[in-house]
Design a protein that fits this description.
It contains 16 helices and 20 strands. By secondary structure, it is α+β, with helices and mostly antiparallel strands. The structure holds zinc ion.
Length: 550
């Protein structure tokens, strides 16, 4: 067993002290600090090329990953294990008056003693078994564990049969520029050093799955995430003659009611179920107050997947949108009829039908009708829209759809379904090929070696339940599934682009062995010391050894 508790405690504290909130200068600072730290180890002084500070690609910000590796000398082997972890954190505003201590675990600990705390937090504080602070759980302790192992093998390459490569990436909490940029570098290293990637271990945090849950979880593979988005057009009318038009907000409300919390949209695989979609935005696109109803509305949802492809999700949501649309029309008709009676006015039959199409379907329709004129116009429009840096991928996409809609000859009310954000692919590690089999075996062996030394159950599950950079090192989707993303993401190729081929080229099975704690992304973020600083590095080390030796 590695006697690593003190070292990892110290390193976690040191990393936490460097505020590194995503999309701030702090990301740059911490990557520099990590690069300096690693470069000072004797092994890397002797092999300076083995520690690389890599600037991200196609990124609006200047920021860096750190990639470093040790070549083992125990026996000649090209097998290489990747350890990964992110250096950025979420913001610290939620710390309120303790904001200036958020990145200083020891000072924060003292300050928290003076606070009125929720009972579990108080219990943990008094137990002395937790470290508090921004990033200590998510995931500087995980990075510290990886750096500890890197340093250990840099001092003992004769114990390593094969190679160990550590990626410390930026921008995990926002757009994953870090991990995506590291892929071409990993490919380059594969060529230059003949690395053969046999498995990747991410060290992002884990938490209890329910109150009182004693388990410490390890995940093989990860949940995927999509952002299905709906552009809804209505028929504009004056509020005084409301039944002459169709309010898109009314359809949007039905749509949210239909999709939000809907268990039909939970994706079960291997006995594990995703949580249902929930809305992250519902708005109309009217720029300012008038007494006309809005022309269009915009809604998007968070959507988790275990086994469905982005194509299947679009099909399911088209169905749901049709149901919502006809529910809206039925209610509309019924209320219109009642109003007609009340007011002694004639009821004129409603001219609209439920009308739902994907962005790809609309785009193809417009291409066949208008051809190059439409294509050229849209290309120019997107180019100009890029200049407006206040737009995120979500709003950028909505504007593209709105512009394309102007070219439609039939402007009767419709719902256009598309994706407006980065797709984080799901990953299944099931043992379907040799590498996966080997990784699962190595993990199972590691757990049975370590479990007897640790009091709480270490439990393996299939899908890491939070979004992480694990999504970008392997791909379980086929070509068709991925094409559904690019052809249905209006900002694809302008505001957003992912080279999924890079992911296919690396395609290494990935598991997550990470620190344990509570309240990541929240004020009382805390990491449990003994599991995170002792068990995690030892488990990871066992997996590394198992993967490289057999
Ligand atoms: Zn994280």
């Amino acid at each position: 067993m590695l006697n690593c508790r003190e070292d990892i405690y110290f390193l976690t504290n040191q990393l936490a002290n460097i505020e590194s909130i995503v999309n701030t200068e702090g990301e740059k600072e911490i990557s520099q600090a990590i690069h300096t730290l690693i470069s000072a180890y004797p092994y890397f002084r002797a092999n300076p090329d083995y520690c690389i500070k890599q600037q991200t690609l196609h990124d609006e910000r200047e920021r860096y990953n750190v990639v470093a590796f040790v070549k083992g000398t125990k026996k000649p082997s090209n097998k290489t294990v990747i350890l990964m972890g992110h250096l950025d954190t979420v913001g610290i505003d939620d710390f309120n008056h303790l904001k200036d201590k958020a990145c200083f675990p020891e000072e924060l600990f003292e300050a928290l003693k003076e606070e009125q705390l929720p009972s579990l937090v108080d219990q943990h504080l008094k137990s002395d078994q937790y470290m508090f602070g921004r990033g200590v759980l998510d995931m500087k302790s995980g990075v510290a564990s990886n750096l500890y192992l890197l340093k250990y093998y840099s001092e003992h390459p004769e114990e390593l049969e094969g190679n160990l490569l550590v990626v410390v990436e930026c921008d995990e909490e926002d757009s994953s520029h870090g991990i995506l940029s590291s892929l071409p570098l990993l490919k380059q290293l594969k060529t230059d050093h003949l690395f053969e990637y046999v498995g990747a271990i991410n060290a992002d945090f884990v938490s209890p799955r329910y109150e009182g849950d004693p388990n410490r979880y390890i995940y093989k593979g990860t949940v995927g995430k999509l952002l299905p988005s709906f552009y809804i057009t209505g028929a504009e009318t004056h509020v005084g003659s409301c039944f002459e038009g169709l309010d898109p907000n009314f359809i949007a409300a039905e749509l949210t009611k239909q999709i939000n919390y809907n268990p039909d949209l939970c994706n079960e695989a291997f006995g594990e179920t995703t949580v249902p979609p929930v809305s992250l935005k519902q708005m109309d696109l009217k720029p300012s107050y008038t007494v006309q109803t809005a022309l269009s509305a915009y809604v998007y949802f968070n959507f988790f997947i275990h086994s469905w492809s982005p194509k299947e999700v679009l099909e399911k949501l088209k169905e749901q949108a049709k149901i919502a649309f006809s529910n809206a029309l039925n209610t509309f008709k019924e209320r219109y009829q009642r109003f007609s009676k009340l007011s002694n006015q004639p009821f004129i039959d409603v001219p609209w039908q439920p009308r739902v199409m994907t962005y790809e379907e609309m785009d193809q329709l417009l291409m066949s009708k208008h051809g190059d004129a439409y294509a050229a116009h849209m290309a120019k429009f997107k180019q100009e829209l890029l200049l407006d840096t206040s737009l995120d991928t979500r709003m950028f996409s909505a504007k593209v759809v709105e512009e394309a809609w102007k070219w439609m000859s039939d402007k009767s009310p419709a719902i256009i379904v598309f994706y407006s954000s980065l797709y984080s692919p799901r990953i299944e590690v099931t043992g379907k090929d040799e590498l996966e089999k080997k990784l699962i075996e190595s993990l199972d062996m590691a757990v049975s070696t370590i479990q007897p030394t640790y009091e709480h159950p270490i439990v393996t599950r299939n899908f890491f339940p939070y979004i992480s950079d694990m999504s970008f090192v392997a791909l379980s989707d086929d070509e068709e599934g991925i094409n559904a993303v690019s052809s249905n993401t209006p900002c694809w190729g302008s505001k957003l682009f992912v080279n999924y081929q890079d992911i296919r080229d690396i395609n290494v099975p990935v598991i997550n062995i990470g620190p344990y704690g509570f309240d990541a992304h929240k004020q009382y973020e805390r990491v449990e010391i003994s599991y995170s600083f002792e068990v995690v590095p030892n488990l990871t080390n066992e997996v590394i050894k198992n993967l490289l030796t057999t």
